[in-house]
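re: that complex we talked abt at group meeting.

here r the seqs, copy pasted straight from the sheet so there may be weird spacing, ignore it
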Amino acid sequence: MVLYRRVKIWSVLLRIFHWTFALSILVLFVTGYYIHNPFALGPWEGSPTNFLMAKVRYVHFLAGYFFIAALLLRFYLLIFGNRYERFTDFIFLRPRNIPRLFHTIKAYLYLGKHESYGGHNPLAGTIYLLVLLMSVAMALSGLYMLYPEGGLWASAGFSIFKTQQMARLFHYFLFWIYLVFVMFHLYLVVWNDIFGDEGLISGIFSGRKFLPAKKG
Amino acid sequence: MSRLFANGLLKLRRRDFLKAATIATAAMGLPVTMVDKVTAALESPKRPPVIWLHFMECTGCTESLLRTSHPDVATLILDLVSLEYHETLMAAAGHQAEENLKRAIEKYRGEFICVVEGGISTKDGGIYCKIGGRTALEILQHVGSEASSIIAIGTCAAFGGVQAAAPNPTGAVGVRDIIKDKPIINVPGCPPNGYNILATIVYILTFKRPPDVDALGRPKFAYGRRIHDHCERRAHFDEGRFVEQFGDEGHKKGYCLYKVGCKGPVTYANCPTQRFCDAGVWPVAAGHGCIGCTEPNFWDQMIPFYEHVPGVEVPSGQGIVGKAERIGKFAIGAAAAGIAIHAAAGAIKKATTKEKEE
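got the structure back, here u go
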């Protein structure tokens, strides 16, 4: 008989970050794809107007600001969050995490037993850090296209992307990378819930995970 | 030299002159009260000497200036300045022409404006463009170092243009990549609007300094805003009414060209407000999307012209060419396949190993 204890892992702020981030990405996917390729057309001239593209863009920009707010919150938590939320906990460069990284990879390849570390495992944590960096690129390219005519974002965007077209290409290409990430993320979350015993999915709602009782 | 245009000047009536001066003032974004000042600057008998250099190009910029139906813009530009050297227009040829250039540089050292049209070859010592036995690179370095300021006309002179497109066999670059210590104003476009060229020269004459430029050296009065934001078809964009393909019902009704590859949203220029020719048209008004000709590397980045995002070359060394979308869909497919295999392996493992139920 294995005994578990319920441990608080994710703070309220982190859960707010996660769901703001997730929902904004969902909205950004749909609206962003419409802006890229307006598959549904607005009404033909003569019928009542609805300004479809303008509205979709409005929602996209709004969701973009929520996305940026969530991103800033996560960067704050990377440094000032609890012990599981700080980047020092799961960055794979840490000596403690190198064996854990290989252990996680083995577990994912069905070669080892699934093990719980409380917070992110080093593999997931590394990917999440990359996604956060990618999100910065996404936000910068988006802001460059939103504010193209001078000011901070225009000059910052110019120094990174040069032309608007390059920012647009970047923004669009990263959209596909996000899609791949979301697919993997959802799959692995469900996989971890099935093969692991920490109750991963309920953890992002309640903030609590089940860890073996014997561990300190 | 400018006596060649004396006949042209006589044809320019006072009314046309004022009209052109007013258009130039408007192009610079100045209020109507400035028209007097601009006119006074244009009428000043002291005309700046100009040396106009042609390098790797199609001469389309000069042609587009000259082929106006009545001689306003070209005549004005060419008569505002004392044109000392212009290969397309001057009567002299051969050694005589080279002599003119040398004499003009000596006479107006440090005072003349150098106008450059066309890209400059840099590969293999710049041997791919030679004029009178000297490479374009040498000529530009020589003439440019003696000029007071340089105006790069057209996308070739500004950013290298079509000959700088990948793989750029001649190593073509724009003026700004060669001359670093002079004020350089880029007036890109393929061709640039004649009034933007005029307004740039008029600005220097009126205010005795170059106009404010953006990060790419383009005058802000002409290249400060994106085409999309001033487009006459913008309402159709916001309404979600698009041309699906050329010649369809939406195209006939003049809907937005976004879906057939218009690059207006990523291109900075004043085409929708300044317009071209005497009829006041521009590509989008004529039913064709913008191809982004005022942007650097547009031959590489804006293609395909009838699609939305450029073809991208994945920098793997082996030249896998594909579109962002194709790569993205491939990545999605590969990820889905990977997930499916992984899940199947997990299911098999679950089925084959008996788990102890607590």
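couple things i noticed - Chain B has two domains: 2-222, 227-308. Confidence is low (pLDDT under 50) at residues 1-10, 314-321 of chain B.
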